[in-house]
Amino acid sequence: MTSPLDGNAAAGALAEVLGRDLTTAVATCAACGDVRPVGALDAYMGGPGVVLRCRTCRAVQLRVVVGSGRAWLDLRGVRSLQLELT
Ligand SMILES: [Zn+2]
């Protein structure tokens, strides 16, 4: 496994899919309950998409793949995602 970047590296892919900046959204890890901003998760960019992992337990929290005019978003590792409404 390569060294992770911080979750801010995933900002572009997430914004492309969701139309907003998710880096300040607060994610609760489904595996261990860790709570931190998406921008503070560990990002792995080496595959076909972006994988964000929990810094505490290393579980995958979020995956996003963009290609061929479609996007796939896997949030099963997030118990809840808190977004500030503006
Ligand atoms: Zn965790």
Tell me, what's the shape?
globular
Number of helices: 1
For the largest beta-sheet, the strand count, sense and barrel status come to: 5 strands, antiparallel
Radius of gyration: 12 Å
Secondary-structure element order, N to C: EHEEEEEEE
The number of distinct β-strands equals: 8
Helix content: under 10%
Q: How confident is the prediction overall: mean pLDDT? A: 92
Structural class: mainly beta
Question: Strand order within the widest sheet?
Answer: 1-4-5-6-7
Low-pLDDT parts are none
Distance between the termini: 37 Å
Descriptive account of the structure:
With 86 residues, the protein is mainly β. Helix content is 9%, strand content 40%. The strands form two sheets. It has a five-stranded antiparallel beta sheet with strand order 1-4-5-6-7, covered by helices on one side. The protein has a three-stranded antiparallel beta sheet with strand order 3-2-8, with no helix packed on it. The longest helix has 8 residues, at 11-18. The chain starts with a strand and ends with a strand. The model has no long low-confidence stretch (mean pLDDT 92). Zinc ion (ZN) is lined by residues 29, 31-32, 34, 54, 56-57, 59. The site of zinc ion (ZN) has 8 residues, from loops.
